[in-house]
Amino acid sequence: MTDPIISTAAAWCEQDPDAETRAKLSALVASATWGDAEALADLHSRFDTRLAFGTAGLRGELGAGSARMNRVLVSQAAAGCAAYLLAQAAATPGSHPQPSVVIGFDGRKNSDVFARDTAEIMAGAGLRAILLPTPSPTPVLAFAVRHLDTSAGIMVTASHNPPRDNGYKVYLGGDTGGSQITAPVDADIARQIDRVAAAGPVGNLPRSDDYEVATNGIVDAYITATCELGQHTGEEPPAGGLNVVYTAMHGVGWQTAARVFYRAGLPVPNSVAEQQEPDPDFPTVAFPNPEEPGAMDLSFTLARTVGADLIVANDPDADRLAIAIPDSTAPEGFRRLTGNEVGLLLGWRAAERHTAAGHTFGTLACTIVSSPGLKSIADHYGLGFAETLTGFKWVSRVPQLVYGFEEALGYLVNPQTVRDKDGISAAVMFLDLAQEYHAQGVTVAELLDRCAEKFGVFASGQVSLRVTDLSIIDRVMDRLRATPPATVGGVAVDRVDDLAHGTADVPPSNVLRLSLADGSRIMVRPSGTEPKLKVYLDVQAADGTLAERRAACTATLTALEAGMRELIAE
């Protein structure tokens, strides 16, 4: 008998508007029909499942099939999102009769095509659709949702994922203020997408070219709003000031970031030319993520050449920020700061400026896997503190938010204008801080010392288990739940909290929290975007000199890392 998957794939071919993916899938169908076992297995990998739509939208490998990112899947997603927005408008008395959506895209392969398909389908469904004119950073799209007061925003991006991936992020306007979607909205949209997929070929979906193309005024407005984070907007950078290297990591950050830095009176960086312009092949990096080994090698080389004081890196869609500083003990001569180190410095800056402006209320927030040192800063300034689940869809919704961050290089420093992590605005605040202290002869390394002396010594580490079989992650989590460890790295475990059922402050999530007798904390959770089990380690030390406390933290981290590697090994 012929495997039914061949008929499924052939039907997909008939509706696929993309000549490239249609040709590749047709060849696979032909090979499988003639008994090619490898081709048949490939078809099963493409069609046995469907790329799930969730709170992170869609994200996956480019290619034909329901388990890949392609024009068929994106068209179904656009129609499903349109149906959801129309249903919400109809169910909300007094709402605007015509929902609206602004659509952005980055420089990855097919991002512009997916964005245009989305605009045509949204317009065909009767929505006001506004397409950003050029490849843009994700924060610009998040800003545009609020600036234009649209019902929703859609960003076509896979952020820092591998080159072969693309994705689809959805934001909501109105009462949500331009934050990413959360449950149950994701499930409601997913049901609409499934309904569209079951109704017939995407060629039957109504389309229209009656959509708007936004002017560059959107980017100009974002730049103006972001420049306000600096204290010297409109001024020339001081002569002999901070010497900075910047990399866009083959993404879309440079054109916008360079204009922002100049307008904010910050040093115009030495840009890594090989990575300055968008390139969907990401030819100089194995993995376009500043956290990955080797990703910042070219910026280290340029920094050594020009004698830089600081390296600033954005990921490809510029919603994350990485910082590196000179370090003679590092092999490259520079050390990338952890997300927690940058997060605490920015949190200190935000709290100091907020209270200096006379504000007596407000909240600093971070995710449950980020450094508890932010609470120490909030307490020092008499501000509130909140922990959220991972993801800025949660951080951005914290009431009276002043500042929020997550350890994965994400920072929200201007919640009044952007309700998502923003690597460009975070760079402005960090460069403003670094430039101010550079003028006083204080380095970023010395600022880290001052932060530790003022708020306490906190240190963090990570252990990851990357898998090819996702069932391994479930198996490890089940094992840890069934038999929690009594000790980790020789330190007693005081309490194990299973967040699967949520708490008074945090919704249910597949996370285990281990609280240790020495005040250390361990969080274990599956990654939301990669096939990884991630373990987050946070330690602190209160006794001795600054150097002694740091040494104690390092020793504890080393022991905990070894202990957790043993516990999650398969």
Per-chain topology:
Blueprint: H1 4-15, H2 19-33, H3 37-47, E1 58-61, H4 71-91, E2 100-105, H5 111-124, E3 128-131, H6 138-147, E4 152-156, E5 165-172, E6 179-180, H7 185-199, E7 212-213, H8 217-227, E8 244-247, H9 254-263, E9 270-271, H10 297-306, E10 310-314, E11 321-326, E12 334-336, H11 339-356, E13 363-367, H12 373-380, E14 384-388, H13 392-395, E15 401-406, E16 410-412, H14 423-438, H15 444-455, E17 457-466, H16 471-482, E18 487-488, E19 491-498, E20 512-516, E21 521-526, E22 532-541, H17 546-568
Parallel strand pairs: 2-3, 2-4, 3-7, 8-9, 8-10, 13-14, 13-15
Antiparallel strand pairs: 1-5, 4-5, 5-6, 10-11, 11-12, 15-16, 17-22, 18-19, 19-20, 20-21, 21-22
Helix pairs in contact: 1-2, 1-3, 2-3, 4-5, 4-7, 6-8, 8-9, 11-12, 11-14
Report a brief summary of the structure.
With 570 residues, this protein is of the alpha/beta class.
